[in-house]
Amino acid sequence: MSRTPAISFAKPSSISEGVLVLLSGEETGLAASAAGHDPQGVLPRAVEAASFKGKMGTSADILAPHGTALDRLVVLGIGKPSALDEQAWLKVGGAVQTAARKAKKVTVILDVAGAEASSTEAAQLAMGILLRAYTFDKYKTRKDDANGDGDKETAFVVACADPAGAKKKFAELEGIAGGVLLARDLVNEPANILGPLEFAAKAKELESLGVEVEILHDADMEKLGMGALLGVAQGSERPARMVVMKWNGGKAKDKPVAFVGKGVVFDSGGISIKPAAGMEDMKGDMGGAAAVTGLMHALAARKAKANVVGIIGLVENMLDGKAQRPGDIVTSMSGQTIEVLNTDAEGRLVLADALWYCNDRFEPRFMINLATLTGAILIALGQHHAGLFSNNDELAGRLFEAGQATGEKVWRMPMGPDYDKLIDSKNADMKNIGGRHAGAITAAQFLQRFVKDTPWAHLDVAGTAMGSPTNEISQTWASGYGVRLLDRLVRDHYEG
Ligand code: BES
Ligand code: MN
Ligand code: ZN
To answer: Catalytic amino acids?
Structure first.
């Protein structure tokens, strides 16, 4: 990550330098206080001349406004102030970050006509600045290449009624943003740099936040009988790892909640090799593991009052003389046997052992796994919802609500015995593909065979974790999807 802008909070006093951003509602216009920053009264005419109506995301720029020492004065539209929810404030923050361009100092005045902005909202705006500012340009040696931002750092001041309150709230949100940016970094990083060992080492760094981190080596996994996960890894020069992260912020006696992530650092497809076009995207096939790691960062950084386990299975799916073949039969840790009919359906093999291990060792209150599992979920839902599959209506409902609140949306898909039958195998307990139809669902049915009766949800994030469309708070290939969603789920239902 190239730039982490410095953000501070202050009272709105006389601002004399840099860029000043004022907010304007769609129907309400500017707050009365705006006049105080516009000694020459240029704003009303300028806004009119720019046909600026205050729509969310639009802005009007006034250069070197007469009678001030400011470089620019920016009026930023925020739409209907009464409709400004948490997500909207993040977006306003994103727009403030864009309005800054190359400025050294930007002050945004949080005064909205007809609506008092709370300190929480000020903190959300600040979080939006952080999320929008992220770029992955560490491999660009000519920094001026990178989105035209140069290597200048902008200092942002959020001027609001209660700076101390906003600062306190922001300390929490900054921790969550840190988790999102960590997940983005992990997904953006190419596979030659980030293999299973390097990913595990990144997870180990969470110890500095108080997370307990254990790393299982291939020999450990062999002893545990994780034949499904190890079968995927055996065609790679780089050995597999499983990372167990524990955040103990709750009461000692409370059973943990658990998150499990698919961490295929590169998915060539194995012997069932993928076509060349687009294969480079498979460096992001650890988006589930990245989200779990980012989530653990977020929860620890904000000292969540919950016991949380995060488990990630890290492998590389490659092909060589030792690689697993179509037709091979492997024995999973559960004892169930799997006929591997397509080596490109590898994520479910990794998760089969990770889910079983998680359930067996921790008896968690629930397990939620995240995985860039199927192309089929992209066909079904595109890039704006993750596929949600669950054996538990309450958990599914809570995930849906958290998705609506954060904008990291999920959409529930059906499951059932008719779909489950499709993965029965002639030669083993199950096969790892279900045929042409309902590919995302048969993948979920496969996972369900490894969770017993534990409340469980599977999020297929193949469409949401990578190749992400840019938006108000993300300008990068890897959205960091899942961190805000699951942080919210924990906060709303499993703390205290
Ligand atoms: N990692 C892929 C799924 C994927 C596809 C993620 C596109 C992101 C974007 C997964 O391992 C895979 O290859 N799935 C196969 C399953 C098939 C062989 C049953 C797929 O979806 O084609
Ligand atoms: Mn695959
Ligand atoms: Zn994969």
So the answer is: 274, 348
Q: Which atom of ligand 1 is nearest to the CA of 434?
A: 19
| Structure confidence at residue 76 (pLDDT) | 96
pLDDT per residue over 19-43, tens digit each?
999 999 998 888 888 888 888 888 8
**Residue 374 burial class via C-beta count within 10 angstroms: exposed 0-12, middle 13-18, buried 19 and up:** buried
Q: Which pLDDT belongs to residue 145?
A: 54
Ion ligand 3 neighbours, Cβ < 5 Å: 264, 267, 285, 347
Task: Give the Cα separation of 425 and 430 in Å (integer).
Answer: 5
List the one residue out of 197, 222, 121 whose CA is nearest residue 166: 121
Which residues lie closer than 8 Å to 45 by C-beta, 6 or more apart?
A: none
Which residues lie with the beta carbon below 6 Å from any ligand 1 atom? 267, 285, 342, 344-347, 372-376, 433, 439, 462
Burial (Cβ within 10 Å: 0-12, 13-18, ≥19) of residue 319: middle
CA of 488 to the centre of ligand 3 (A): 27
Nearest Cα to 318, choosing from 293, 347, 351, 343? 343
Q: Which residue has the tokens 């840190």?
A: 178
- Measured from the CA of 466, which atom of ligand 1 is nearest? 8
